[in-house]
Amino acid sequence: MSGVFTKFAVTSMVMWMAPVVIMYGFYYQVFPGVSQMSPSARTLASGFLAVISVNLVIGLFIFMAMKETPHQEPQPDPTFLANAKASINQPAFSQVSDDSKGKGKVE
């Protein structure tokens, strides 16, 4: 169970850190080729890449979570199954008799 919390904590940190690092890199022109871009283009590119990085981290977390779950077929509840089999073996008809008021009575 601690592995789940560790994966969640790591992906949460990366989800917060990746956009900040991307924005920092574009703002201080750490990445090559950024210095030739106009300030508005840098802002748009850094915001777009930050959003993409968050979505990639979320997708990676979902992928890891899906790999972690066991692949087994769901099994029916044994009590329900026993009751269902017993109800199949019971007779399905009942007799109806008339009472004095004309209404049917199930016996």
From TrEMBL:
<dbReference type="GO" id="GO:0033116">
    <property type="term" value="C:endoplasmic reticulum-Golgi intermediate compartment membrane"/>
</dbReference>
<dbReference type="InterPro" id="IPR019013">
    <property type="entry name" value="Vma21"/>
</dbReference>
<dbReference type="GO" id="GO:0070072">
    <property type="term" value="P:vacuolar proton-transporting V-type ATPase complex assembly"/>
</dbReference>
<protein>
    <recommendedName>
        <fullName>Vacuolar ATPase assembly integral membrane protein VMA21 homolog</fullName>
    </recommendedName>
</protein>
<keyword id="KW-1133">Transmembrane helix</keyword>
<keyword id="KW-0256">Endoplasmic reticulum</keyword>
<comment type="similarity">
    <text>Belongs to the VMA21 family.</text>
</comment>
<feature type="transmembrane region" description="Helical">
    <location>
        <begin position="47"/>
        <end position="66"/>
    </location>
</feature>
<dbReference type="Pfam" id="PF09446">
    <property type="entry name" value="VMA21"/>
</dbReference>
<keyword id="KW-0472">Membrane</keyword>
<keyword id="KW-0812">Transmembrane</keyword>
<dbReference type="GO" id="GO:0005789">
    <property type="term" value="C:endoplasmic reticulum membrane"/>
</dbReference>
<dbReference type="GO" id="GO:0012507">
    <property type="term" value="C:ER to Golgi transport vesicle membrane"/>
</dbReference>
<comment type="function">
    <text>Required for the assembly of the V0 complex of the vacuolar ATPase (V-ATPase) in the endoplasmic reticulum.</text>
</comment>
<feature type="transmembrane region" description="Helical">
    <location>
        <begin position="7"/>
        <end position="27"/>
    </location>
</feature>
<keyword id="KW-0968">Cytoplasmic vesicle</keyword>
